[in-house]
Amino acid sequence: MAESDAQIDAPPPAKEGQSHLYLVDGSGYIFRAYHALPPMTRPDGTPVNAVFGFSAMLVRLIDDLDADHLAVIFDAARENFRNEIYPEYKAQRPEAPEDLIPQFPLIREATRAFNVPCIEMEGFEADDLIATYARLARERGWRVTIVSSDKDLMQLVTDGVDMFDPMKNRPIGRAEVIEKFGVPPEKVVDVQSLAGDSVDNVPGVPGIGIKTAAQLIEEYGDLETLLARAGEIKQPKRRENLIENADKARISKRLVTLRDDVEVPEPLEDLAVRHIDPAGVLPFLKEQAFKRLIARFESEAAQGGSEEGRSAETVAISEAAGADAGYELVQDLDDLKRWIAAAEDQGLVAFDTETTGLDAMRADLVGVSLALSPGRACYIPLRHVGRQPQGDLLGGAPAEEAPKQVPFDAAMALLKDLLENPAVLKVAHNAKYDALVLSRQRNGGIAVAPIDDTMCLSYVLEGGLHGHGLDELAQLHLGHTNIKFEEVCGKGKNQITFAEVALDKARDYAAEDADVTVRLHALLKPRLVAEHMVTVYETLERPLIPVLVAMERNGIKVDPAILRDMSADFAKRMVTLEGEIHGLAGEEFNVGSPKQLGEILFDKMGLSGGKKGKTGAYGTGADVLETLAAEGSELARKVLDWRQVAKLKSTYTDALVESINPDTGRVHTSYSMVGAATGRLSSNDPNLQNIPVRTEEGRKIRTAFVAEPGNLLLSVDYSQIELRLVADIAGIESLRQAFLDGKDIHAQTASEVFGVPLDEMTPETRRRAKAINFGIIYGISGFGLARQLSVPQGEAQAYINAYFERYPGIRDYMDSMKAFAREHGFVETKFGRKVHIQAIRDKNPAMRSFGERAAINAPIQGTAADVIKRAMARLRPALEKADSPARMLLQVHDELVFEVPEDAVEKTAELVREVMEGAAAPTLNLSVPLVADAGWGKSWAEAH
């Protein structure tokens, strides 16, 4: 992304006598210019930062590039013919920033003032016009360069047509397209049709990304051949997705294929490069008060428009696009001190760490990047080594010497002062990772604070609309494609560690991340106030970052001996179950093969309900087997048992042993703050939130999670928090009163719905009421409840109908949430978190139904998630104030797990319960009490 003031590294020039057409993607230039510069206004108050940046870049392009024909192509409107094909195309893209909107017409005016053709056309995208002009030019034998880094334009690269990436100043030809997509340009459309595009809302085929799509297209040749032969795909899920989503793939192809047959508004001849007339451009520049550009063209006018008198300094491209100023490599202490002083003077710095891996508890710190403003960034290498030989890869060459870099301990001491300085706001993307890595460094580690996280900002503002990774946000908000990790480290067996990367490449990659982060922060942070999301970010998300850093570093002790014993037991159980299954089937077969199981159940045994998919195999999913088991099939029940034991063994008892950190003897899960649209945290590597607790085998796994000697594990969880929120939000007075009176809510529901007096309540009746209570929150259907209770569907639907008749407020709530979501595209938690639900307007009934269920559940589940986040943020200072030795280890949705010395557990339990039960106050003012239950023991199983 960095660029010096030297001549642009342009694409190869046209052949002698050959015309050369440059087609500039105007939208890319606009957004690059807008995000590169701080706010600027002309004398009348009109914002003009994007206008200035665009003007400076356009002048530089005209000055430096070999072109005799040039045009800037713009999008005429947000909607075009693709919206007629697929109404949701680009529907989720956020509106342009408010201060950019008045600059759009000024940028078009600027283009014309500089004597450059300004082309747009209603009903078509700029890309279609570019495709058409490229075709027309090639038919005349011209050379064509498309000035853009947009991946959608890469399908146009061919002999005589290349691209030029203005952000990285590099040509994009056939080799670069293959590097990007894994296929040559002529197959890019097929790959995009399969992979889809979340930014533009191109559906694609679920579960297929760019890499898989490229492999499939290379193997089968093209999209239609692949779809026709989808039944040959060996992977069951991939095969099923391709067959079921073939129409989506074809629609996607129509969306991503660029039209090259548009009747363009201006002929090629009119695109000839014209001299910029100072007399024509100066009135425009003076109206905008662009002093440097005015000085340049007044100088030209004074010299009769000669080329002499133009200077790189007066064009000031580095002001127009900060990245063009170049990134700095900091290799000595004096330069580092200079950067730190600048950050302290400014009071804000974006930072990023480069490490040897993705596991923050095991990765070594390699370097740190800083950014002070757009384009003003540096990289501080700390532990780079010379490139190590890898056999034939380097031809047996000796290892290179370590490059010059700042001494590690001295650098860390200086960075510690900066990153812990309370007067300097630190900005990072996925700050939790960087903060955890830095906290582990020797000399006491670094406790980064105060901190802002652009990933969390994006999540708070647009949760449910798209992902929140840095690369995706750079593309979405900045129109920029970040340097990929594999571009600097390679991939596969030839991949090197970041510590081995040459410093110039490391600088550009690392500094770009900090640069993009500071740009995103300037873009996203101001939106909190305008969109009324300050409370969600400042009281729920940002305070949680240091809490999660501490939790992940604490980890939890796991006894590997217990896990190995359980793995052995599970293996024996599987063998026993396989024998019983084979006995019931009357023959041996592969129990893990859905195809063979289907043939046994429906062909050999003749059980009803068998349905073949498009591949010709019977469906044998959990829903099918549960239905058969409910109808009395012992074999189906045994297979369900076998599958459960097999999953427990592979996913937990085997995998958890491998997850134990050799340095700590503990398992350190990583919490994703942006993994669920509702606000819930998700646990990964390993996932400790999905350990099953409803079965005896699942509960046994928790016995392996133990306390250190002299300590106990304390578990505190909310009692029926989501039902309490339903009673409050839906206004169910009888349920509210039951909670206020401390009654058994499931017995109370059973009594009211089924008309059974409490003193005559049976466990079965209560069980049915419990299933309805929890099922209603998730929009359970009569079919789903019937399967859960093992009763006929009609009977289950009657239960649901009776529930709604007794509690009409539930139905009113559900209807109002669906209507609100359809109108606004999102629903809200009681704390004000917006949960965007794209599926609510989907034309596919199944997807729309899914969206409706999400609209019903999200305010409940999301509010519960917000409550425990508030509790976690409040517990940290509460425990510190009480001088408690307790350490928070885990969060599992409504439960928190602590490790506490035995003599402090009762006092800690009392404090934690108090904070958790008061977490909603005073913000929510709930009409029902929150109740937290506490338990403790030597293991998690004993505590919970």
Automatic annotation (TrEMBL):
Q: What is its EC class?
A: transferase
Tell me, which GO biological process terms does this entry list?
Answer: DNA-templated DNA replication; double-strand break repair
Q: Which reaction does it catalyse?
A: DNA(n) + a 2'-deoxyribonucleoside 5'-triphosphate = DNA(n+1) + diphosphate
Record key words, sorted: DNA damage, DNA repair, DNA replication, DNA-binding, DNA-directed DNA polymerase, Exonuclease, Hydrolase, Nuclease, Nucleotidyltransferase, Transferase
User: Which superkingdom heads the taxonomic lineage of this protein's source?
Assistant: Bacteria
Does the keyword Metal-binding feature in the UniProt annotation? no
Enumerate the spans annotated as DNA-directed DNA polymerase family A palm domain. Answer: 698-904
Known EC number(s)?
Answer: 2.7.7.7
Pfam families given for it?
5_3_exonuc (PF01367), 5_3_exonuc_N (PF02739), DNA_pol_A (PF00476), DNA_pol_A_exo1 (PF01612)
**Subunit field text:** Single-chain monomer with multiple functions.
Q: What does this protein do?
A: In addition to polymerase activity, this DNA polymerase exhibits 3'-5' and 5'-3' exonuclease activity.
What name does this protein carry? DNA polymerase I
User: What species does this protein belong to?
Assistant: Thalassobaculum fulvum
Designated gene of the protein: polA
